[in-house]
Hints:
- This protein has 143 residues and is of the alpha/beta class.
- The protein is 28% helix and 14% strand.
- The chain has a two-stranded parallel sheet. It has a two-stranded antiparallel sheet with strand order 2-3. Strands 4-5 form a two-stranded parallel sheet.
- A hairpin with an 8-residue loop joins strand 7 (129-130) and strand 8 (139-140).
- It is globular and about 55 Å long.
- The model has no long low-confidence stretch (mean pLDDT 87).
Amino acid sequence: MTVPISVPKSPTHNKKLLAWVDEIAAKCQPDRIYWCNGSQGEYDRLCAEMVNSGTLIKLNESKRPNSYLCRSDPADVARVEDRTFICSVEQVDAGPNNNWMDPKAMRATLDRLFAGSMRGRTMYVIPFSMGPLGSPISISASS
C-alpha cells in the first residue's frame, strides 16, 4: 500500500527505520505521514494548529512566555491499571503485581486494534536519541 507522504519527506536513508514506518503506515492507514525536523518554524506551526484545535491553551504571555497548557484525556487507557500489561515470554518475569500477556497474543490484539486507526489523520514521525546526541552511548532511530 502506498501512503502519500507530506512534506518534508523522510530525512533518513535508514532502511530498518523506513521499513518500520512503512509497516506501521500500512497497518494504521494514515492519510499523511509527516517527518518532524525539530525546527522553530515547525514548532510554531504545530503549536498554532494545536491551539486552533483546542488541544493546547496558550497561557498569558506576560506571565508565562512561550507556554501552553495541555490536559490529558481522562479516558486515556494508559492510566487504567487493568489495561496495562507486561508482555514477556515468561509470565514470572512480569512480577507478582502486574498483568501479563504473551507477546504474540498481545501483538495480535494490537494489530486488530490499530488496523485503520489513523484513517483521516496524520502520522507524525518524531526523531529521538536515547542519550546525548553524538555521544558514544546515544542510540537514535535515525542512525
